User: Fold this.
Amino acid sequence: MTGKVMTVPVTRKDLMIVNMGPHHPSMHGVLRLILTLDGEDVIDCEPILAIYTEEMEKIAENRTILQYLPYVTRWDYLATMFTEAITVNAPEKLENVQVPQRASYIRVIMLELSRIASHLLWLGPFMADIGAQTPFFYIFRERELIYNLFEAATVEGVGIIGGEEAVNWGLSGPMLRASGIQWDLRKVDNYECYNEFDWEIQWQKEGDSLARYLVRIGEMKESIKMIQQALEGIPGGPYENLEVRRFDRAKNSEWNDFAYRFISKKPSPNFELSKQELYARVEAPKGELGIYLIGDNSVFPWRWKIRPPGFINLQILPELVKRMKLADIMTILGSIDIIMGEVDR
Amino acid sequence: MENDHLQNYLSDWLVKYELVHRSLGFDSRGIETLQIKVEDWDSIAVIFYVYGYNYLRSQCVYDVAPGGFLGSVYHLTKIQYGTYNPEEVCIKVFVPRKNPRIPSVFWIWRSADFQERESYDMLGISYENHPRLKRILMPESWIGWPLRKDYITPNFYEIQDAR
Assistant:
């Protein structure tokens, strides 16, 4: 008796609240936005901050200016020179301290370099946000050139080791090569197939932290060259030496006896070390890594002595930091490049 | 092969100068090994340094046999400009277990600093004239010399497999 009643759908006019963040696809840091949307239009936006807060203003009330300087680099971590500049400028203006002209010029140079660095690092994520992903990587390459200059300013002339002193203290690796001694175990010992590649020993003469830094960067470039040459020239053939000490699979071999089945502490027969001794070494990135091995006609070695490069390179630290400023200790320690895993073993 | 014919170069040179030593042959890579007596070690170490061995690569100690001697091993090399086959030697100094004391070579090769401390820590060999001979890896109050073959780990009661 009645027809169907057509219900007309009524568009609901409620606004939608959407949360955006705190993580973003580019390097903005953590910012949480609460957006009120009407379809595609944004009606309101409420940013929620203070996810990354460290209460630096409260901390500043308990620190002198010099003590506070490391904190300021954490404000704008892409243009760090500006944060340090304002931290220094504000008390200077307060007390009316005169800055010499040369210092002022040096500050301007550092600040403008930092400005370039910051704009470069803005450009990358900005283009990535819009959609062009590649420039993100190119800007870091340009920033590297600026980093080199900043590094040299901090690190030059710190922690100088002479050539003979380096040899006497038993240093090895980049520490030795940065003091003018061209000693690289890959060329001296000729192990593996390093002599088939065309590469140079990276070395510097000055012996300070900047020299060690340059040696390590140069070594990375040489390694890339070596890898490319190796990939081109890799020979065919087997990669295992199947003749070495296989264990006996014959019918009544002693490895299938009662003792080997049920007493689990007996190791399975594998490589046996004869009663000889040997000091083998490689050129590890930190220096000369050596093993002094005394075999014992069994599968276990009699003595396995590890010569860690970090342990021996660390010996020179007390000598280097005497009469240096406290802040230079970290520079020198970093340039020695130790890792406590091998120092302590 | 580095050495086609292995010759006791250093041993012959020491004999020429009438320095008491004993040649222990060669290790698997053909490095000459010499044994020096404890009493002569400090003077012969200086002689080696003057002869050109300016790099103390590695100093370690090992236990020759349970109840037997303790051996202190020094690997010396000559670092010179442009050598691709440097001269090396391995020197061993043996001391009895009861009162092991060896003169320190810290004042000749500085790289013996931490290494001799580690040898003292692990095996108990006292290095005379070492400026700060104290334990380096184990805590200072530890009793016992861990790397000796007759060392019993305290409070470690896992059932050992009798060999």
About this structure: Chain A touches chain B at residues 164-165, 167-171, 181-183, 187-188, 190, 263, 265-266, 276-281, 288, 290, 292, 294, 302-303, 305, 307, 311-312, 314-316, 344-345 (CB under 8 Å). The first helix of chain A runs from residue 56 to 60. The mean pLDDT of chain A is 77. Chain A has 14 helices and six strands.
